[in-house]
């Protein structure tokens, strides 16, 4: 047998000293969830700096030929049971002088391992070649790639210091701002007020799409003066970093390190101010969260911990519960279980992966499936009793696995999911399925995402008696909640009287006294398929706008049906508000009545429209009074005409605001007639409404589709966008395009009967999808199981009436 040192020297050419830009993995195996604390430790490839567990390192050697590895093993330190506890001298946990956080301490050992025979050499050792010593030192000193990504995500969430803060000029105009009683100097608004930090003017905020909010006086003031910073009154407290400071030129919330000094200039003593602008989330959470939290998480229940295959918890990476809850349900479906676990091993996925398996979605999905479903990591978190001879007892919380690499891959194409902020589980679910579909594009027969996909068909009946059909594909059935269909109306009326009495007495209603509406799921489904009027529908038969009737149905029934309950509606300030409502959901549902079968005998299709008919008949003209007033202010005549048209001739102020915010648009000088000629069939949508949706941050194409799909109604269009965040409509909702053969859209999709069984619930605690907490309940092995991040246990009382997403499995008839 060769001398180990000679063997190492013969492989020195494959050993690299890492550069500062190299990503070094040393906390977790790239193919499994093994760590240095696992029984076999962790092996770091000294050429690629990828990490592998004991079972996977040989696969890497066979694939790459890399023989030299740094082996890291962590073992628990033995702590003397009679060790005296140090008296804390500082108010803190886990810091020098603070309280002991009781975390276990680990001892780390290192060896150099040479494959394939696992020849080992000790480290540190002066006998090792210098290149190896330098490489190992660099690996050990470097911050792990896993940690770097986590830190980067946290930093991305932090407000940045404004470039205008340090040298902000403040006018000495004698303005002193009182501690209360504020009002916009240009209107009567007393809320949503902003203090300009240059001249001390108090002005109202932006106007919302529906006319609520402010009157744009603060932004108008900036457009005239270019004074850059303003702070929202009511958000200033002793914690100045929490104050809402906005930078107009930077167009974002920022930090002002000199805010105390800037406020003092106007006589404001920040230490005496109390926060008065309470957000909707804060106000409603204060009343309802305790109840929701206890009910959904089953707090106070004697939850029996469960371990084993399919019962592995997911570690919360920082507001990642939306991901954890969604993925637990997804991998409980047969389609994903078989695709990434039963029919594909870790080794096969690694052999197909690129050089860096950490960036391969197929590899990371297989890794996640193996981690969740194999049972290898479903280990209870053992807690030693004080008695050394007592047996260990398991808590409901298990260690779980951290889905770091999966999160990094799935978030690579979506910046919001890359952050540590809370996200909408629905939006994540749709993004996830879209990425899975793309990854399986070459082999659609293997695509597990299609088990959720189905066809949707809109039948539009024109007042001429003729019809048109529009089809699209979707992954979720989004349902409005008809509160007027509540089954406990009498109790609600009595509660509202009781609440009014309490308020008149100056008392608050306690959470256990609140009565919530109860709406049957059947009512939500009936509402989905109910006839709906479409106003201003352009009929190619009548060659004019009319009122049409739209009904919606499904052209195929998926293997797994996901129902999204629209519990979030828009309130003033463009803030999502959560409906406080129960949905009575049965274990078995039948949706056969909402199947759509396309063109029926005796129906006559609307004729194909002549291109430009509708556009020409509705060609907008600018209001000359608005144009002349804007021209008198010095604006370009063509720009003024465009501003008047884009704001639907609403008024001079609206047109001017549009002008000021679109002066730098690339197409500002394009003639209006040329724009009309170059527009596609979506151009018939009111451009001012498109601009309104664009101002909310939506893409123009999605805004146009949404307005088309909703008959030009902005509120319905926003609902459509929130229900279709991926812009999943595949065909234009153009009434001039009739679908005479709607069935091909279902080609390759699963289909069957309309009876479904409830198998999973994703519930949300909080008043906005951007805050709060998500929990999953899944029906497994004949019982309901709660998956609350890394806590997995038998559910005692699953919150079937409080779900945000409901997952149903089709029953085979």
TrEMBL record:
Under the heading SMART domains, the entry gives: UBA, ZnF_UBP
Q: Which organism is it from?
A: Lithocarpus litseifolius
Q: Where is this region: Disordered?
A: 728-749
| Name of the protein this chain belongs to | Ubiquitin carboxyl-terminal hydrolase
Report the EC number(s), separated by commas if there are several. Answer: 3.4.19.12
Question: Which InterPro entries does the record associate with it?
Answer: Papain-like_cys_pep_sf, Peptidase_C19_UCH, Ub_carboxyl-term_hydrolase, UBA, UBA-like_sf, Ubiquitinyl_hydrolase, UBP13_Znf-UBP_var, USP
Tell me the protein family, please: Belongs to the peptidase C19 family.
The task this protein performs is described as: Recognizes and hydrolyzes the peptide bond at the C-terminal Gly of ubiquitin. Involved in the processing of poly-ubiquitin precursors as well as that of ubiquitinated proteins.
Q: Name one GO biological process term.
A: signaling
